[in-house]
Predict the 3D structure of the following.
Amino acid sequence: TGAKAGDPSRGKILILDPQLVGPLGLIAEASALKEHVDTIYLLSPNRLDAAAQHFIYVVRPQVQYMKQIIGHINAHRESGTSKKYWIFFVPRRTLICDDILEQESVIN
C-alpha cells in the first residue's frame, strides 16, 4: 500500500553498509523497505544532502564507517539543520565504535 502524505514514516532515509545489502536482501525485499523510508542509500564518505529529518544507518561496526557517519552528522550540524540519527550495528556494536562516536560528540 505504501505511506501516504503526512504519514510519520515519511522523512526517513535508510543508509546501508554496502556489504550488508546482499544478506539483507535474503530477508527483506527492497520494495518492502521502501514502504517505510523515502530513500535507501549505500554508506559512502560523500556528503549526504537530503531533506529528510531522520537518518537510519545499518552498518557493521567498523572504524571507517563511524568516520563516514560522523562526517554526515557534522555536515548537517554545520548547515544548521536539525536531524535525528539511529545507528544499528550488525551483528553488534563495539566499544571502539562507541568511543569514536563519543569522542566526536555524536553520542553521549
